[in-house]
Amino acid sequence: MTGLQTHQIAVVPGGRFDGRTLGDTALRTRTGTSVVAVVRDGAVHPSPRPDFPLVGRDLLVVVGTEEVSSRRQRLAPMGALRAGAALVARGEFSIVIAGLAVTAGAVQGDLAALATAYVLLMAIIGPVAARFAEPLARQMLRLRVRPQPQ
Asked: Domain range spanning residue 115?
């Protein structure tokens, strides 16, 4: 169909859409796009209602005009930043793997303490990074763009 384009938007674990309903995101109002489906764990949920709960790693299939698409391209760097911050190790799975490695004797005692500390730090830093990466980047961009006094 002429003038319409489809896009996919990932729900970042710990991000601003994670744990909210589709209606709470106000995607249609804010972006002019319509969510036509949500893909979760390989299952497609067509025509989701506004009370559909979103969780991290969901994939929203949206339809919008070419104008919306060009606006979205300008916002892509912030989306990439959010996605990158969400990829910081989460910890739950890493803690299990580290515990198995230590129990199996695959890791020496000194290294086990370091690995455990690293995994625990990443379990804390991961969600914080996903939440605050975009506001910090916006603030840095504002500071960078300000004209220097002469």
From this structure: 92-145
